[in-house]
Amino acid sequence: MNELVTESLAGQPWLSLLTFMPLVGALGIALRQMMARRGGDGAIVAAEQKEIDGVARRVALLFTLGAFALSLFIYIAYYDRTIGGYQLVEQAAWIGGGVSYKMGVDGISILFVLLTTFVMPICILASRSIEKRVPEYMIAFLMLETLILGFFCALDLIVFYLFFEGSLIPMFLIIGVWGSPGVKELGGIKMESRVYAAMKFFLYTFLGSVLMLIALIWMWRFAGTTDIPTLQQTAFPPGAQKWLWLAFFASFAVKMPMWPVHTWLPDAHVQAPTAGSVVLAAILLKMGGYGFLRFSLPMFPIASADFAPLIYALSIVAIIYTSLVALAQEDMKKLIAYSSVAHMGFVTMGIFTGTTQGIEGGLFQMLSHGFISSALFLCVGFLYDRTHTRAIAAYGGLVHRMPFYAFFFLFFTMGNVGLPGISGFVGEFLTMAGAFKINSWIAFFAAFGLILSAPYGLRLYRDVMYGPLTKEKLMAIADIDTREMAMLGVLFVCALIFGVYPQPALDVFAPSVDLLISHYDAALAGAFGAPQ
Amino acid sequence: MKPALKLGRFLWLDGDGKTIDGVGPDGIVTTVAAGARRIVKMQSGYLYHYAVGMLVGIAALVTFIVVRFGGAQ
Q: Is B70 within 8 Å of chain A by CB?
């Protein structure tokens, strides 16, 4: 990198530029759609619509790739990996009364920013089979990217909340409008399954975050500011901490999702289009874990320590329960969705151990799950594009027709199982090492749950790939093409590199995690008289 | 393998399906829908139905005020 160039550009509002870059693309697509030639009946001419669809696809890909390039540039040129505190901070007066527009990143958030910009172009590429309302679809994805990036960069509670809530809207539309067909009946009312799933997703998350909003207003009144770094230094009274912790927990536990508020996830995943599932698994679930690390642990340390046993219990139930449920699934996407809940159980368990290994393991697990689960959802999506079914029973013997697909699918299934050498192993190992420090029983049960991930993973692979090729539909099925191979290829490289050599990622986490833990331990020592 | 599969099916259909969803989101939706279907019958369109309702309401309100605040003079 040219020193002169990076120095002269330092101090620019890089994070805001990055955050709002996809939004510019969305506006461009909207503008093009508005200027379309219309026929006598007011509808856009078919040929024109086709052209706009192509433009929308290209613009979306261009802007998501641009955002990825920009985030890499910011990371390489300006991000200092040795600092634990917030960097690239930008602040502007906004509402007043202690509320300002503030952005910044640290070791906990920067890799999620990169993960987001990395996954988004893959989502756009994976949307080729979308033919309905293409411009609107691309706008939804670009908006979603802006909202997620804003969420990870926000350093003000109100800004954070706006991005957090805002991200519900495009995802709600993506599931509800572009989801799979099907009808569901509930309480005598017939509705489309995708609408049911979208509603469930929205209401669950919304209910949780309304409680967070109340807590947020209380904190604002108490501290007189919504500045996140300041709030992290504020000592909230222990009695209030409990309620605040519970309110934030309601929001993040749903998002994570933790047992027993996880049932929206399988429905949302099954109904969402492939790219929707990818972004949901790779990024949206991480908002919960990120929230725990940004708010619960640093702002309410005493309550976090008090409620840790509850978290361990829920995490272990999640790991074992959902692994067993995954074993019984007949739908490929549902199986992977349930396995996601189990994997997120490791994250919550790790985070609330309050140990370096636990927290770094939790962060790493989230990152790794971003690669592996997206790849698995892509794998299912590729099959769905070819046969239009997700039922495991509809497949069998695919290895004879799709050797390249078989390779990638096996690799990512193994990654999901937690095979050493693939990134999934590192996070699970570290979180269990962290749990072992606290209580060996927690680690024991978590390890037991980990064993259960092998049967469902292997069963899925065996039933889909092996056996005789007898199904009529599969006789002429084609192997993955270059585009599909490229998508799986980049995820393959990431999962493999981080699996063999996780140190670079852990080095990014370390300064911020150390800072978090020293603050956490100090707060506990202050409250209980001795370090926990 | 067989018992684990059975347990998984049980946790899925009875645990997630009937218990968590049944009591949680689906239960709430079903209750609200059933309640709405019942309460909708109150809107009969006959003026005298509404008049009786209002009369009963006023009687209840007056009774409440008299009992709660009455007898002061």
A: no
